[in-house]
Structure formats: structure tokens, C-alpha cells
Specification:
The complex is a heterodimer of chains A (292) and B (174). Chain A has twelve helices and 15 strands. Chain A has 292 residues and is of the alpha+beta class. In chain A, the strands form four sheets. A five-stranded antiparallel beta sheet of chain A has the order 4-5-10-6-7. In chain A, strands 11, 12, 13, 14 and 15 form a five-stranded antiparallel beta sheet that branches. In chain A, strands 1-3-2 form a three-stranded parallel beta sheet, with helices on one face. In chain B, helix 3 crosses helix 6. The longest helix of chain B is centred in the last third of the chain and has 17 residues. Chain B is elongated and about 50 Å long. The C terminus of chain B is likely disordered. The chains are: A alpha+beta (292), B alpha+beta (174). Chains A and B meet through strand 1, helix 1, helix 2, strand 3 and helix 6 of A and strand 4, helix 4 and helix 5 of B.
């Protein structure tokens, strides 16, 4: 279908974007890469009246190291840019690894990290990665800027901690430390589809033990789920058959997946367990990650 | 803030100016306003890839880009890259391998395959499949399409570092 009738305006500066937004009212939507927004318009799932195009705002672009401990990624950075940028590949490798799992090349050329986080699809890769990596979302309104830890950003189904007239300016990722292992895995019926179930995880490997694991599931709830019971079960442990089984059993506490078009809650729990075993083995450097 | 906008952009090397409805997506703009019928509107919500065109050098879903947002942009369609001869080898391989049947997906397949060959000089068959996975074909079962891309690749690899190839590569990367 075609998009509903709408008005369009392009902001030349961030200041102007906020003025236009106030003028258009809270229902107006910001247009960045448009890879989800334009599809929802075509389905007539949204009817914002006015689109404010922020895609040319320099203030929201660029990838740069902040001190020695963080990398700041402008909200308008496309998935394709994330996947090939040297700072991301070397300092935030989980994100570079996630990029090929996001939709398809033509969509990665246009879709942005800010758009993905703001849309907050529970089956999307980048929200889960941001939580796994303890990233901070840098939110801006007309007056100032605030940091929202990724773990507090996703508040529900397609909902975030952003306030009215507040946008995502950037995302700040901690630089990966020595010995840190991170992995993202997902199961999808077709390449590029949203995941039936997915896992993004990070841990430090000390000898054969996983320390400070951070395990996040996506596509298994209304928002990305931090699997705290599974994390406690594997923390400080070696990845052995027994510890894998204990972590899998802990998922009964962590996950309460709703049935969806991909399957029943039981199916989804099973898939989560399979992914958890593969992810733990991968982080521990155990070769047969598919054998679990 | 307006429901109609004046835009000027470059399409296949030619400067064009038009007044467009704000909700008009790029494929409708190309087909209905400019009469370039090579880009196809399939699902119109970003799934099928039939509308694939290039904007500022990178392939995009033409149905997920608003024409209004493209003031100043460089757009290339299947007509443009056919005329310049940039994808001639791919087109010949598609014909030789019978990789086009109804033809609806073919322009998108060609543009997406051209981007892969530009970015990755030696993709595996699996990587070819992966790169084309967002372009749906309901006729061929994909095998012949992957064959055609692979044939083009093999030809290029065989020619290796011949000067003409290097020139072609540097021109297409501009």
C-alpha cells in the first residue's frame, strides 16, 4: 500500500529539528533511515501527519573514540557503516558481528543504529547487543543531554525511556577489554528475518572460567531480556556439560516467552537453551559450538 | 512543513527537477514521474527487493526511501547501469545461465549482485546467496542466479589484474 498523506520537512540543524518538532506536535515522527518507519506507513500502521527528516544532521553522525574507554557512535550511523568501521571492528567487535544478521544489504545501507534502538523491536539485534555490552544511550532534547544505561532504555514492547521531544543523539560503547569474549547468535527461518530466538552475550575468559557474564536474549519477550539467573549459574564456572545444563535450567526463571508466529513458549524456551549452550561454548573457545 | 516538495536530483547522470507529493516513495517517483519502468514495485514494504536502486552509490530499497528526502542525491537505476555498460558481464551471465524468467526481480538482483562484486572480490557461493537473500525470486529457485553471479566472478578472477579491469573497478568505486 501507499503511505497515508503526510507533510514532510527537513531539519538543517539539531536546534531547528527541535523547533520543528514542537511546532508539529508530539505525534510527528522523526525520519532517519526510515527502514522501519516507511514500512509501517505503507501498512498504515502509523499516521504521524508530519515527518521531520533528521537524516542530514551532522550533530548525529560520526564514530569516535572517547578517551581510552569508550566509543561514541552517532545515532545516524548506518548498519553498513557500523559493520565496516575500524573502531567498531577493533573495540566493539560484537556490534560488527551483529551487522550481517540485521536484515539485508540494501536495508543495512540505510537503516541506522538510532532508529533501531528508538523503534525497540524485541527481536532486533542491536538493542540486545547494547544491553550485553553495557552501552549508554545518549538522549538529547532541546535543552540538554542525558545518559540512559541500555539496560534501562527498553521499557516494553516498542517502548523506550525516551521522553516527549527527546531523541537519541548517540550510543556510547565501552571499549572491549583484554580477554573479553562476546558472541551473538540467532535462529531465523530465512536469512535476514527477525530472529525466532537470539542471544547476545559477553564475558571475560580467565583461564577456562567465564567471569562477569552478561547474557541477553532477544525475540523471546516484550523486550530484550537480561538472563540474570543463567548469568549467576555460569559466573566463575568452567563451561562443562554440568554448568551448561545448570545455566539452561536457570532460563526457566529468566524467560517467559509468549507464543508467536514462530512457535509455542516451550519451543522458544528450547531454542533459547540451545543458543545459550552454543554461546557459552563459543565464549569459552570450545570448538564444537554446534554440537550442544 | 508541506505535503508537496520541489526536489532536484541526479538520476542516471541527468539532473531532474520535479514537484513531488511528500509521501511519494522513490520507486513510484522513478516509474510514474520519470517513466523509468525498470525498477519494480513489488511488496512496497521492504521485503522483496524488486525495487532495489542505488542512492549515492549504495543499493537501497526504493520503496523505503521518500523522493522528498532525496533533494541533491545521486540515483542510479537499472536503466543507467545498463547504458553505461557497468553490469554488462553480469547481464550476459544472467542470459547465458537463464537466471531471469519473468524478469520482475532481475533489475534488483543485478544491482545487488553488482554491489557484492564491488565490495568483495572473491565471495564464496554461500556469500553470494547471503548477499542476495533479501531479493526474492519466485521463478528460478535462485540456483541459476547464484550460478550467473559466480560465472561473472570466475571470469573476473581469471582476468585478474588486467589493466581494463583495474580501470573498471576504480571508475565504479567513484
Amino acid at each position: 500500500m501507499k503511505a497515508p498523506p503526510l507533510s514532510y520537512v527537513r531539519a538543517a540543524t539539531l536546534t531547528e529539528a527541535f523547533q520543528l518538532w514542537r511546532g508539529a506536535g508530539p505525534d510527528a515522527r522523526l525520519l532517519a533511515g526510515g527502514q522501519t518507519l516507511l514500512a509501517t506507513l505503507a501498512f498504515r500502521l502509523s499516521d504521524p501527519g508530519t515527518l521531520i527528516d533528521i537524516s542530514r544532521l551532522r550533530e548525529l553522525r560520526g564514530i569516535a573514540q572517547v578517551g581510552t574507554a569508550a566509543v561514541r557512535v552517532g545515532a545516524l550511523t548506518t548498519h553498513a557503516e557500523l559493520g565496516r568501521h575500524e573502531l567498531i571492528r577493533s573495540h566493539v567487535p560484537l556490534i560488527a558481528e551483529a551487522v550481517p544478521l540485521i536484515a539485508h544489504p540494501a536495508i543495512r545501507n540505510r537503516g541506522t543504529i538510532g532508529g533501531s534502538l528508538a523503534f525497540a523491536d524485541p527481536a532486533a539485534e542491536l538493542p540486545a547487543c547494547c544491553i550485553a555490552l553495557d552501552a549508554a544511550v545518549i538522549a538529547r532534547n532541546a535543552a540538554d543531554e542525558r545518559r540512559i544505561p541500555a539496560a534501562q532504555f527498553f521499557t516494553g514492547l516498542y517502548t523506550t525511556a525516551l521522553r516527549p521531544y527527546e531523541l537519541i543523539a548517540a550510543v556510547e560503547f565501552p571499549v572491549a577489554k583484554a580477554g573479553e569474549r562476546a558472541v551473538i547468535l540467532e535462529l531465523a527461518r530465512r536469512s535476514g528475518d527477525y530472529a525466532m530466538a537470539g542471544i547476545a552475550a559477553k564475558a571475560r575468559l580467565a583461564g577456562a572460567t567465564l567471569v562477569d557474564p552478561q547474557i541477553v536474549f532477544f525475540g523471546l519477550g516484550e523486550r530484550p531480556v537480561l538472563a540474570q539467573a543463567a548469568m549467576a549459574a555460569i559466573s566463575g564456572q568452567q563451561v562443562l556439560a554440568g554448568t551448561i545444563a545448570a545455566a539452561q535450567a536457570a532460563l526457566a526463571t529468566d524467560l517467559d516467552p509468549p507464543a508467536d508466529q514462530h512457535g509455542s513458549p516451550q519451543t522458544k524456551r528450547h531454542l533459547a537453551g540451545v543458543l545459550l549452550a552454543r554461546a557459552l561454548k563459543r565464549m569459552a573457545g570450545i570448538e564444537d559450538a554446534r554440537a550442544a | 512543513m508541506s505535503t508537496h516538495l520541489d526536489i532536484t536530483l541526479t538520476v542516471n547522470g541527468e539532473r531532474v527537477s520535479r514537484r513531488v507529493e511528500a509521501r511519494r516513495h522513490l520507486v513510484d517517483f522513478l516509474r510514474l514521474d520519470l517513466g523509468l519502468m525498470g525498477s519494480h514495485a513489488g511488496c512496497e514494504h521492504g521485503f522483496c527487493g524488486a525495487c532495489t536502486v542505488r542512492v549515492d552509490g549504495a543499493v537501497v530499497r526504493g520503496c523505503l526511501v521518500l523522493a522528498a528526502a532525496l533533494d541533491g542525491a545521486q540515483v542510479e537505476t537499472i536503466e543507467g547501469v545498463s547504458d553505461t555498460g557497468e553490469i554488462r558481464e553480469l547481464q550476459e551471465a544472467f542470459i547465458a545461465r537463464n537466471a531471469a524468467q519473468c524478469g520482475y526481480c532481475t533489475p534488483g538482483m543485478l544491482l545487488t549482485a553488482a554491489e557484492l562484486l564491488r565490495q568483495n572480490p572473491a565471495p564464496t557461493r554461500e556469500e553470494i546467496r547471503e548477499h542476495l537473500s533479501g531479493n526474492y525470486c519466485r521463478c528460478t529457485g535462485y540456483h541459476a542466479i547464484v550460478d550467473a553471479v559466480e560465472t561473472t566472478l570466475m571470469k573476473r578472477l581469471k582476468r585478474g589484474s588486467e589493466p581494463s579491469v583495474m580501470i573498471e573497478k576504480s571508475v565504479s568505486s567513484l
